[in-house]
UniProtKB/TrEMBL annotation:
InterPro entries: Phenazine_PhzF-like (IPR003719). It comes from the Bacteria. Belongs to the PhzF family. This is Phenazine biosynthesis protein, PhzF like. Keywords: Isomerase.
Amino acid sequence: MKAEVLKYEAFTENPGKGNPAGVVLHGDAYTEEEMQRIAELAGYSETSFIRNSEAADLELRYFTPGHEMDLCGHATVASLYALCEKGRLEIGKTYSIQTKAGILPANISEKERRIHITLEQAAPKFKPFTGDREKLADALGITAEDFHDDLPIVFGSTGIWTAIVPLKSLEASKKMVPNNKQFPEVLVDLPKASVHPFTFETIHSDSDLHGRHFSSPYSGTIEDPVTGTASGVMGAYMQQYVRSGQRTFIIEQGQEIGKDGRVEIEINGDNDHIKVNMTGTAVYSETRILEI
């Protein structure tokens, strides 16, 4: 059996940048085991499968090379961008997307002559990090002195759980070399979570925050270049813990690994009813035919 996988790079308009995702247009043709095998062969941080849905306009299922994910921001942007390019979705409309994180609305718009996808993510949730800060620093290749003095390390989710780690400086972000295999023993509360350090210092002058994203060792990848769901958690974290009053953020990511990308995050509502909207564009890269 063969599978056609389209490669799109999300959160950039420049080929070779942003975050690559595999997109399979005819996801109903494959079993769950076959979808996992396709994602493993494709090797992207996530591959999405577009499927018919009785509950929504369409269903998206997301697989890393190692396991299925409830939600993936960059693969959602890539998938809807691809469907719009191919005339299956229309600019100016909002569609309901069935995911394992719930049925979420996604709007397709045109800005600066490019298709942009805005996804409303799942409601933010936070849990305290009760692990050892020294061990976490060691797993990231830095020291505990590099952590921000006044902000907490917490687990956050707008669809998938990640550990949000505030850093003092951009220099700390640049020098990180993670040992992902250590994550489960450090993240004792949620051992399958990823780790998402961020800093207020940025490379681009128009960015508000700078992030990196290190994958769970169960995912089969080391670093996710530009992450939509984790960027959404960052925006919710700013509302919950920083309380600056800022509601829109441009988040840069991927610069350390040559994958410069940008995610736009908008926060609506109050602390009890926060809505997180993530916006990004994408660019087509290539088509691969895989034997499964």
